[in-house]
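Q: Hi! First time doing this. I have a protein sequence and I read that you can turn it into a structure. Is that right? Here it is:
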Amino acid sequence: TGANAALDPDGFNLRIVPSSISWVFLSSLRILPPITTQILTLAPLTTIKKFKDEGTTGKATPLPFAAMLVGGFLWGIYGRLTNDMTLMLPNVTTIGFACYYLVMFARYRHPQTSLSLHVLAAFVVIITVISATSVLPVEDAIDMIGEVGCVQQVVMFTGPLAVIKTVMRDRNTSSMSAWFTVATFLSCSVWTLYGAAITHDLYIWGPNALGLVAAGAQLFLFLKYGLPPPSHPVDAIEGVPLKSVATE
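A: Yes, that's right. Below is the predicted 3D structure, encoded as structure tokens:
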């Protein structure tokens, strides 16, 4: 007939398209997810630069960075167990950058912000999963990692919403990262399609669909309150804008 189903996880044609278009669509879903993962992994660099410029993490939370570290290990192992290189390989760089972000967060951490608890929780999850994987049958290990990974994805993508009360009270989005939000929206979009159309894996498309909703909520906050105004560098000890110090 010259046509086939673009999305057909259960043997039912959800949409009939020309075979060439279907092939391009499905092939792109094997290429785009790792690319968007790298974009998402690099997105916090703008936040780290802000920490450096201001000399403090301010009201930011380390939760997304800790969740990113856990996710790198979880989904890297999950990809290895399921022989899914599209899922496994991009998480190698995720682990490295997550460690870097946590180190930089620790360097510029606001005195009232807790970091040790987040790092401890991350390592407990990682060690527990690695230990369980070494003793469980492969299928059981896949299910366990998939379930824990779903929780991790939701925590990572909804982490910025932890400051939603502050954003709405101050009518200011300075405690959120616009770049990270956009990168999350793009990454969750393609991984949702990948999980539904390529692997037919609920553990992949499920949490990413929820992450897509969370990213949409964060985008709404940016649309409502706008981007945060540029701030002047802050003295790391006194917390005084350097520009003010220089002009006094």
